[in-house]
Amino acid sequence: MKTPAIAIFVKTCGFTPLKTRLAASLGQVKAEEFYRLSCKAISSVINSANEKLENAKLQPMKPYWAVAEDNPEAIKHWSEPVITQGSGGLGQRLYSVYTRLLAEHSSVTFIGADSPQLSPEVFVLALQEISRASFVIGPADDGGYYLFTGKTPIAERTWLSVPYSTDETAEVFAQNLCPLGRVSWLENSFDVDTSDDLNRLKKTMSTQTDLTEEQKILLNWL
After folding, report:
1. Which single residue of 5, 98, 185, 190 could bond 105 by disulfide (Cβ 3.0 to 4.6 Å)?
2. pTM confidence score
3. pLDDT tens track for 34-93
4. pLDDT at position 56, please?
5. Can you say how many angstroms the Cα of residue 192 is from the centroid of all Cα atoms in its chain?
6. Angle of helix 195-206 versus helix 213-221 axis, rounded to 10
7. What are phi and psi of 128, to 5 degrees?
8. What domains are there in the chain, each with its CATH number?
């Protein structure tokens, strides 16, 4: 039986500029510290979600680091399994990872490394929803999406027709997906791009219960 997959889209510190808006106010060192801690927090949440899925007698997700760089030295920084994003713009890279993983898995979930406040329940809900829909979108407050899950093939042109990094990214993506199957929506959340987002992250995580140890470490850093 095929298992669901989840791809965490990441860049490698020291190889590709990352969190540039955050670095503009905090400095590159602090921005990279946040990124490393956020990656660990997201990974720990996925592990916790898999435990909950197993307890609910559902298939756990197989996690992949979807690494931006093809450089073998950069890839060494990530634990297996790793899948490279490939070349091209964001739409091309999303298409590449989605298509390759969907060939081996029952569904594919995308997540970034900059929403470390997400709870395990978000991922469990996404997997529950994908049993009733073809696609699941977790919309972000800036108009993008912090999570996407799909189980149906998507043509490259559909990925390329989305205006990324705009306030209508998620809405246009959903509209383009509708002819392929039903789209289910999760609750809004946010990702961290600026120092203001870091302040929001601290306030949000300070009120959350049942944080993983890695999330607690990040909160202490904040």
Report:
1. 5
2. 0.95
3. 999 999 999 999 999 999 999 988 899 999 999 999 999 999 999 999 999 999 999 999
4. 87
5. 12
6. 130
7. -70, -40
8. 5-221 (3.90.550.10)
Positions of the chain with pLDDT lower than 70, given as ranges: none
Token duo for residue 202: 């601290």
H/E run at residue 145: strand 145-150
Collapse the DSSP code of 189 into the 3-class scheme (helix H, G, I; strand E, B; otherwise coil) and give the result.
Answer: strand
Element (H, E) at 195: helix 195-206
Q: Which residues pair with 64 in a beta bridge?
A: 7
What is the token pair recorded at 42?
């997201």
State how beta strands 5-10 and 62-67 pair: parallel
* Continuous segment of H or E residues that includes residue 25: helix 20-26
User: What single DSSP character describes residue 191?
Assistant: -
